[in-house]
Amino acid sequence: MKHTEPAECAATTVGTDELIDALTQLGRRQRVAAERMARELGWPRAGLSVLRMLGCSGPASLSDIAAALEVDVSVASRQVGALVDAGYVVRTIDPEDRRIRTIAITDSGRALVVRSREQFGQIAARAFATWSDDDIAAAVTQLRRLSEAIGAPEDLSPHQNVSRN
């Protein structure tokens, strides 16, 4: 059966609609690749994000983890809880402020991060085998530019004035 789009879904603004479609497709493909990698590693995709963050930045509070991953504290708490149960992170009490619990990555958590980076590196090497270093550098620049343009979710209020260049 052929899928047809309702009139309101048809692209009408050249450029902007195409950009949104491309970002949507990129998001889907990135999610599928991340889910496949997490499945092969035997760990939920969200848990890998927490581990990678802690592996790069070092110990952090739960609120810092939530902020860095742009998720609600309750979401970060569930992810950290699962990681604690699996032995990939530990909760410690901050020696300077005993009210704060700090989450730190364990050796087994670091090993999982290394395996995930190796696996992602292999996937990326295959996906971008025909790209030059300049192509990759240009893509990185444009993706970072896109991320900045989109901004944080709270920056996207429909009531803000939007200027178009």
Automatic annotation (TrEMBL):
Keyword set, alphabetical order: DNA-binding, Transcription, Transcription regulation
Xref: InterPro entries: HTH_MarR-typ (IPR000835), MarR/SlyA-like (IPR039422), Tscrpt_reg_MarR-type_CS (IPR023187), WH-like_DNA-bd_sf (IPR036388), WH_DNA-bd_sf (IPR036390)
Coiled-coil segments on the chain, per record: none
Residues covered by the HTH marR-type domain: 16-148
SMART domains (UniProt xref): HTH_MARR
UniProt keyword Transcription regulation present: yes
Record flagged with keyword Hydrolase: no
Protein name stated in the entry: MarR family transcriptional regulator
Species assigned in the record: Myceligenerans indicum
